[in-house]
Specification:
Elements: E1 18-23, H1 28-42, E2 46-53, H2 69-87, E3 91-97, H3 107-121, E4 125-129, H4 133-136, H5 138-155, E5 172-177, H6 180-190, E6 195-197, E7 200-202, E8 214-217, H7 222-229, H8 247-255, E9 256-264
Parallel strand pairs: 1-2, 1-4, 2-3, 4-5
Antiparallel strand pairs: 5-9, 6-7, 8-9
Helix pairs in contact: 1-2, 1-7, 2-7, 3-5, 7-8
The structure holds zinc ion.
């Protein structure tokens, strides 16, 4: 809990659509959701981002030059702020937890904190990682579970620890999904995605087509996302291969994002969506709290 909170929610035009992303590390927003953020922000949606850790263990350079966790956390929070501004995020809020330890955080405390943010901002749509954490990352899986719980808690008038804000029912909750083709393109760009957790090897072959409910096309925004990617300068050694990718490959990596509609109170069925706000009726478009 080292980072100052940003408790002031900027006011948005009455009746504007609102989207909240709840993620684990600085750069998750850009690498995993950048095209989606850029597209919706450009369409006038008010986008806010909650990031649970400062990525303070994510040193990818020469070990001799690691500035240490506190300094790296500060650097990465600043990188995130710059990237978020380029993508069009209106407010960034850090929960201040430690990178790599998110699944050890007290669930009641973090769920309450996320739910309070939801009650204050009153988003129509919430985005987070899926149950697989995209490639098995325990922090991504933890934030999926906490965010899902927070969406439930925010709507529950009986929540014990959420005094001070009116309950809020999110219309739709999405998990980031990825087809096998996307996972291979990602590995081609970043190297092999494998995690060794509890003596097991975690890989992600990608989701089957029929599980994916929603594909967001943000191809027109790929250059904007690529600029945002490069704000995460402390991670540049990790991004080295990206420099040599073709425009077409960049467009695919940043401009095509897939989701699983984990919860919706406004639509259902098997029809494939191309808009995260599909089914959100005008009355649900966040009358300001
Ligand atoms: Zn991450």
């Amino acid at each position: 809990m080292s980072d100052p909170k940003l408790l002031t929610t900027p006011t948005s035009p009455a009746g504007s659509r609102r989207m909240l992303l709840v993620l684990a590390h600085p750069d998750d927003e850009t690498l995993g959701f950048g095209g989606t953020i850029a597209r919706y922000a450009a369409e006038g949606v008010e986008v806010h981002l909650v990031t649970a850790t400062s990525g303070q263990k994510g040193w990818v350079g020469d070990p001799e030059r690691n500035p240490g966790e506190a300094a790296l956390g500060r650097i990465r929070r600043e990188e995130l702020r710059r990237a978020a501004a380029i993508l069009g995020v209106r407010n960034v809020y850090f929960l201040g937890h430690t990178d790599g330890e998110l699944d050890e955080v007290d669930p009641e405390a973090i769920v309450t904190e996320i739910a309070a943010y939801i009650r204050e901002f009153r988003p129509d749509v919430v985005l987070t990682f899926g149950h697989d954490g995209l490639y098995g990352h325990p922090d991504h899986i933890a934030i999926c579970q906490f965010t899902t719980a927070a969406v439930v808690a925010a709507a529950n008038p009986g929540s014990r620890f959420l005094h001070g804000f009116e309950p809020h029912q999110v219309s739709k909750l999405y998990y980031r999904a990825a087809r096998p083709g996307y996972m291979s393109a990602y590995e081609e760009a970043f190297g092999e995605l494998v995690m060794h957790i509890d003596g097991e090897e975690r890989r992600s072959p990608g989701w089957q087509d029929w599980v994916i409910t929603t594909t967001v096309n943000a191809g027109a925004r790929w250059r904007q996302v690529w600029i945002a990617v490069r704000q995460h300068r402390s991670q540049l050694p990790f991004y080295e291969r990206l420099q040599s990718l073709s425009d077409e490959r960049h467009r695919y990596l940043w401009g095509t994002q897939e989701f699983y509609r984990a919860m919706s109170v406004v639509n259902g069925g098997r029809e494939k969506e191309t808009d995260l706000f599909a089914g959100v009726p005008a009355w649900a478009l966040t009358a300001a709290a």
